[in-house]
Write a structure and sequence with these properties.
The complex is a heterodimer of chains A (274) and B (264). Chain A is α/β, with parallel strands linked by helices. Chain A has helices spanning 9-15, 43-53, 70-83, 99-113, 135-144, 161-170, 185-195, 213-221, 237-245, 251-269, and strands spanning 23-30, 55-62, 88-93, 117-120, 147-150, 175-178, 201-204, 226-227. Chain A has one domain (9-269): Metal-dependent hydrolases (TIM Barrel, Alpha-Beta Barrel), CATH 3.20.20. In chain A, strands 1-2-3-4-5-6-7-8 form an eight-stranded parallel β-sheet, with helices on both faces. Chain A is globular, with a radius of gyration of 18 Å. The mean pLDDT of chain A is 95. Chain B has one domain: TIM Barrel, CATH 3.20.20.140. Chain B contains ten helices and eight strands. Chain B is globular. Classes of the chains: A alpha/beta (274), B alpha/beta (264). The A-B interface holds A 1, 10, 13-16, 35-40, 45, 49, 52-53, 183-185, 207-214, 216, 231-243, 245-248 and B 2-3, 20-26, 38-40, 176-177, 179-182, 185, 201-207, 209, 224-236, 238-241.
Chain lengths: 274, 264
């Protein structure tokens, strides 16, 4: 790094330099998980990790929200939003196997906590994203112009790119974000076909650190529709940040992925823009 | 300050995959060197993809031809036990390796023929098969690299127990993540010869927790290049909440120490 040159995004993030970057992590968790141990599970831990990189806001749900006791998880997230206003944008979870509970629970989360993001996990719930049990989620999101984020796999039986595309088409007032849109060539082509036609359908990138994926994803879906997500606590933030910092996109494109695109979505969600 | 940290990638390959996950992956020596430069990595230990996907002896030969003495890429041979005659007896093999500047070895012992990440050379790590080779490697203190997808946790324990002076390095590629701290923690508490590279998508705070619990000597910087983007893991080490001295150890000095310990 030369002393006189303006530091690049890569240098800022590698060396921990002061910066004016907008960084928003669109995919984080609090909580624990049955399959392995996490040493950091609280909102304090999350915000501390965000501070390491100057991350302004995280979209966060609780892993307890992925199992049957999901309402307990929603409450913990609501408390975290109150504890760290503006830093944690909580995502309420809904379970398609209890469809009669969905609308009241999402309304409760909206009223009590101002929770305006909904997280789905069709893999854990073993349920298709376009199935009947999820329709109350989309109807509620559409009525309230909310963001729906979801675990996704390009061709997954439960949670495919095209299942979500069909919902993006049916509910244009809601915004949809597919998680884990990274991996291999074939998957990116499928995501490209799924996401391109719909202005309300976005891609979040955590997953395998496969070479050239970000560059190709930007080609496939456009530089304005790709969002940084780390998958904290399942995956660590630094490599997720590092893959954007070190990819071969332009400085502006890196800034868009790190947070400018997400900021636009959150501003709209919070009524800060038209 | 961080410019003082030299990164040596302990998990890198050259050559083309039979089924590359993405087009245009770097696979030649110039391409790999350019990628290392772009990512701020000084050098790398490399094996040849053909030594995994086709035949170890052929791939090792391709490796040496293609490296052609390139000093920033340190050759790593993929090895087999000698019983079938595909490889010479262990002492002869290791003499040859050391004489050609090859100070680490990699094994793909999995019995499976697929899927690709689990496909291996179909041999046993037990004493009746790989014992003579592993004993000779232990005698020479030559580090052995094995991808996690090629070996069970019980096999890791057996290897580390039977050959306590053999450095065993687990690498992730091409698995997404170990997510295996309930295995690693007890293994690390028993075995001082077990190392893990940084190329998997580790869970939050892995680096810090390992350093706190077992010291910074147990981790080696590795990226999984060319399959994985190497810059991600540079940031993982560079921005970990550990001392600069610990970062230096993980980034290169642990590996350099292992290489220095090899009996030439």
């Amino acid at each position: 790094m030369t002393a006189s040159a303006e530091p690049t995004v890569s240098e800022i993030l590698r060396y921990g330099l002061d910066h004016d970057l907008t960084i928003i992590d669109f995919h984080t968790h609090l909580g624990r998980w049955f399959h392995y141990w996490f040493s950091e599970d609280s909102a304090h831990h999350l915000v501390s990790r965000m501070d390491d990189f100057g991350i302004a806001t995280s979209i966060t749900h609780h892993t307890l929200g992925m199992v049957g006791e999901y309402r307990r998880g929603n409450d913990i997230i609501g408390q975290a939003m109150r504890q760290f206003p503006g830093r944690i944008e909580g995502a309420a979870m809904a379970n398609p196997h209890y469809p009669e509970e969905i609308r009241p629970e999402l309304q409760r989360c909206l009223d009590e906590y101002d929770m305006r993001v909904i997280k789905l996990h069709p893999s854990t719930h073993a349920y298709k994203l376009d199935g009947d049990g999820y329709q109350p989620v989309y109807e509620f999101a559409s009525d309230n112009r909310l963001i729906v984020v979801t675990h996704c796999g390009a061709t997954a039986v439960n949670g495919s790119a095209m299942q979500l595309a069909s919902m993006a088409a049916r509910y244009p007032e809601a915004t949809f974000v597919a998680y884990h849109v990274a991996g291999d060539f074939d998957g990116l082509k499928i995501y490209g076909e799924a996401i391109r036609p719909y202005p309300n359908y976005y891609a979040e990138i955590c997953g395998p650190m496969t070479h050239n994926v970000l560059e190709m994803l930007v080609d496939e879906v456009g530089e304005d529709k790709v969002l940084f997500g780390s998958d904290h606590i399942f995956m660590s933030m630094p490599p997720g940040i590092g893959r954007i910092a070190s990819c071969r996109l332009s400085e502006l494109q890196k800034r868009k992925l790190l947070g400018l695109n997400a900021r636009r979505l959150l501003d709209r969600l919070r009524g800060r823009t038209s | 300050m961080l410019d003082e940290i030299r990164f040596i990638d302990c998990n890198c390959a050259i050559g083309r995959y039979a089924a590359p996950p993405m087009p245009d992956l770097p696979h030649t020596v110039p391409q790999i060197l350019e990628t290392l430069d772009y990512s701020g990595i000084d050098s790398a230990i490399v094996y040849h993809i053909a030594a995994w996907e086709y035949d170890p002896e052929s791939g090792n030969r391709f490796l040496m031809e293609e490296l052609d003495g390139e000093s920033r890429l340190l050759p790593q041979w993929v090895v087999l036990p000698h019983h079938t005659g595909e490889f010479p007896p262990p002492r002869e093999l290791l003499d040859t390796m050391v004489s050609q500047g090859v100070f680490t070895a990699r094994m793909f012992p999995s019995e499976k023929a697929g899927p690709p990440e689990e496909a291996g050379h179909n041999f046993s790590l037990a004493s009746w098969s790989a014992g003579p080779l592993l004993s000779e490697m232990q005698e020479r203190r030559m580090p052995l690299f094995i991808a996690r997808s090629q070996i069970s946790w019980d096999q890791v324990h057996d290897l580390c127990s039977t050959y306590p002076d053999l450095p065993l390095v687990l690498s992730s590629v091409p698995q997404l993540s170990f997510r295996a701290n309930r295995h690693l923690w007890p293994l690390w508490s028993i075995h001082k010869n077990l190392y893990v590279d940084t190329s998997d998508n580790e869970e939050t705070a892995r680096v810090e927790r390992v350093v706190e619990s077992f010291g910074p000597e147990r981790l080696l910087f590795g990226t999984g290049l060319p399959r994985f983007a190497p810059g991600a893991h540079v940031v993982s080490v560079a921005r970990a909440r550990i001392s600069t001295e610990a970062k230096k150890l993980i980034a290169s000095q642990n590996l350099e120490r292992l290489l220095e310990n090899v009996k030439k």
